[in-house]
Amino acid sequence: MTPTPAGFSANLASLLGHSRVLTDPVPCAAYAVDETIPAAVAKPASAEEVAEIVRFAGLEKLALIPCGNRTKLGIGMPPSRYDIALDMTALNKIAHFDPGDLTLSVDAGLPLAQLNAALLGHNQFLPLLVPWYSRSTVGGTIASGIDSPLRQFYGNPRDFLIGAKFVDGTGKLCKSGGRVVKNVTGYDLHKLLIGSLGTLAIITRLNFRTFPAPLASRGFVASFPNAEGALALRRAIAESSLTPLTLDIVSPELARLFATQTPQSHEVAVFAGENHTSGQSLLPPVGDWFRPREWQLCAAFAGTPEVLARYERDLMRLATNSSATSTKFLDDTTRPSLWGRLRETLSMLLEASPAAVIFKISILPSHHAALFASLRQIADRAALPHALAARAGGTIFFALLPTSANDDNPNLLAQIATQISDSLSASEGPAQEDRGHATILFAPCAHKHALCVPEVSAGRRLKAAFDPQGVFAPGRFF
Amino acid sequence: MNAGLINELEKLLGASSVLYQPEDTLLYEYDGSVEKGRPDVVVFPESTEKVSQIVKLAAKYNVPVVGRGAGTGLSGGALARAGGVMIVFARMNRILELDAENQRAVVQPGVVNYELTCAAEPHGLYFAPDPSSWKSCTIGGNVAENAGGPHTLAYGVTTNHVTALELVLPDGEIIRVGSKHGNAPGYDLAGLFVGSEGTLALVTEITVKLSRKPEAVKTLLAIFDTVDDAADTVVDITARAITPSACEMLDGWTLRTVEDYIHAGFPMDSAAVLLIEVEGLAEAVSTQAAAITEVCNAHRAREVRLARDNAERELLWKGRKNAFGALGRLAPSNYVLDGVIPRSKLPQALRRIQQIGEQLGFQIGNIFHAGDGNLHPIILYDPRDAAQFERAREAAAHIIRYCVEVGGALTGEHGVGMEKSELMPLLFSDADFDLMRRVHDAFNPDCALNPGKIFPLSKGCGEIRVRKQAGTTATQR
């Protein structure tokens, strides 16, 4: 039997002090996950307090969901139980930054924008330009597994997360990895935390390798009347010696959104040459150089003046060969408007529709052409507005954007989800790992079960090893 | 050894695929480390299904199983510490698919690292992890140990290049984790299994990323009169955020030995050299090479040479990659250590290693991946002298302890294996071991796979008795 909220809240408050436990329904509602409101919010100030709360939850058979600034809690399946929100934002210090070693150890609750501001003082940065950038915490970014356009060049967090401290489901402080850039000592448990949605452990601290911030960077956008042109240019770039920082394809519908909307997220300077003051302004609009009726290939690149000139030469030549209808190089004044929108694609899609459903589709890039066509057909048949962004590495974000909440029909969405899954298995080879994967990244709660994450028995075994009592975020993953 | 098991293995695989005579199994009690562990029976399956059946047979007879590639490992990872069945993947050596457009290859575990790069070359691609043993080590072994190499400084170690695995669990179940595209939903299981040293599952198929060959490469040899100057140069290159694709150091003693043998053109009278490589666009490489030369000169480099052509470049790398072989000419055996330190601690670490050598009466050479702080001190010793070998181990433990003291780790690329399992408590608490043990038990609950590795014996597979080896000292090679 789960004790009454009042019963456990008093005990929780005596554990942490009343000022750091919220039980009023109004503040608790701000921590809702898929319409489930926790009975209490706990705000620990140290890893030891996190461990105490986890032990408490274990004893009382309560379910915990950790969070940072709650920008991406919509990702994941609806929780089956949710008693305590663990607000990690009071753990917000940079524990170590060794600029000479390019390594960093940071508390989970620190916002990324604040962290990068500190790193940029040393001309370094963490290549995580994720949506809701100005508010996202480091821990939430890692736990949500959210994608950054910069992964094209810098890789995924799994490539630069070098260690972590966390509290396991038995309430013990554990760690894996370390603070050196090369390390094979013990199991790489910290990699499992990436995208784990708080189901395995509560991340208290993360260690990263940092990167030199690009001193000069440029943007490039080429427009095409059809997806094939953009894909041909992308392939030509992939087969060239160029290694752009980002390489994304944007559908005409998404381009139109970029041209007409401004993301609500405040803008933050990331690279040299950007003029925003932290958290003060919204993104400027894209200029009239942007051709919103067409498919766009968007790239960013960085380097010395000689390297930038080389990129401009080569990109121009490759774009001409791919019959681009227009091209534009973006400098420090024009670039942030488009780059910021690429980064904020997911937040803009959610702002664009009261009932947006965003699929994340992972598939080999060679299958993009066929899949783009299938996705368009599926959305058109359902007469739903849609938009698509595709990363060169293979990930596609495909959004259905009903114009009013009344348009969302669970049966229709279930059909669409099935059609998307079918189009993935049709387009790839027989071996299981060759197939693409589609998941629902964001959707109104009622629609989330339209497409479940495929069950992997090895995943369940891990969940049981990390969290034997099922304290962490039950139902979010399995 | 159980005659019933051998009989059933022969029935399953054919007599030519099963070795159990002591003179045959003797060859499999070594790897590249100083450890020993002889299997009771060695088998050579040709398919995943056979691997699964072998594992089931071993379970039936209650004997442990250990996988092995080419046996070039340096921590005893592929040794049968508790005897049992050794599965050698030499006959599972096919490249199953090479998908140039998506830059992926699907390989069996016995494929030799260098052979994959050769197969990818016509497409302008290569497999980035490049351990010194790349011409003989297998990709299965690279996956088990999460192998590195000189160019991992820029491109990452094995785990950064693996997207999917087929695995055989100790009960014979065949599972697949990850995906060819590399973004499978769910936990990053491939990230867990890579580097788990064969203690969770046997790897029977691997999907890897292939990298595009850079258009330009420049290789620099910077020559220094003191080790401190060379070490300070590395610290400064990192601090200035210049990112070479490789940055290797050889100390003077080591490089004289190497030069005698390889004739790579290393200077005989210097205290240390740095072998530094930059790769990428021609325009970027020139600037980087100039910046590196400037840093070297600022730290009193006697000379900075630029390899004139590919032949010269290859010769320099041959000197680096065959260095351990060259040292074999000086002593009956050598002990190659593997520790990691924060890169800024390099100068003091090299001085400390020197001191430890002097205190324990060893000449310790250094040839290592300076750019990522991955030390490889080499201790020369005579394995017939048991006392000397014990002193060599003592020196090794002192050096690894020092690495941990300055914020480093026990191993950067060789793995924990048998060699360092007892040193693990230097880094990990009881709570850490408890969790690692639960993860271990989630896949390998009865310690059927590779017992006696990674975990200290007191915290690992308690029920498995690790055999006393006949000669408790070292390998003689």
Mean pLDDT of chain A: 92
| Low confidence ranges of chain A | none
Class by SSE composition of chain B: alpha+beta
The number of helical elements of chain B comes to 15
Overall spatial form of chain A: globular
CATH architecture of the largest domain in chain A: 2-Layer Sandwich
Cα-to-Cα separation, first versus last residue of chain A: 22 Å
Strand content of chain A: 15-25%
Question: Can you describe this structure?
Answer:
The complex is a heterodimer of chains A (478) and B (477). In chain A, a hairpin with a 3-residue loop joins strand 17 (386-391) and strand 18. Chain A is built from 16 helices and 19 strands. The model of chain A has no long low-confidence stretch (mean pLDDT 92). The longest helix of chain A is centred in the C-terminal third of the chain and has 18 residues, at 410-427. An eight-stranded antiparallel beta sheet of chain A has the order 15-12-14-13-17-18-16-19, sandwiched between helices. Chain A has a five-stranded antiparallel beta sheet with strand order 5-6-10-8-9. Chain A has four domains: 5-89, Uridine Diphospho-n-acetylenolpyruvylglucosamine Reductase, domain 2, CATH 3.30.43.10; 94-212, Uridine Diphospho-n-acetylenolpyruvylglucosamine Reductase, domain 3, CATH 3.30.465; 217-344, Alpha-Beta Plaits, CATH 3.30.70.3450; 356-443, Ribosomal protein S10 (Alpha-Beta Plaits, 2-Layer Sandwich). With 478 residues, chain A is of the alpha+beta class. In chain A, helix 1 (5-16) packs antiparallel against helix 3 (47-60) and helix 14 (368-381) packs antiparallel against helix 15 (410-427). Chain B is α+β, with helices and mostly antiparallel strands and 477 residues long. Chain B has four domains: 3-90, 2-Layer Sandwich (Uridine Diphospho-n-acetylenolpyruvylglucosamine Reductase, domain 2), CATH 3.30.43; 92-212, Uridine Diphospho-n-acetylenolpyruvylglucosamine Reductase, domain 3 (2-Layer Sandwich), CATH 3.30.465; 216-323, Alpha-Beta Plaits (2-Layer Sandwich), CATH 3.30.70; 326-405, Alpha-Beta Plaits, CATH 3.30.70.2740. Chain B has 15 helices and 20 strands. The radius of gyration of chain B is 22 Å and the shape is globular. Mean pLDDT of chain B is 93; it is low at 468-477. Chains A and B meet through strand 9, helix 8, strand 11, helix 11 and helix 16 of A and strand 9, helix 7, helix 8, helix 10 and helix 15 of B.
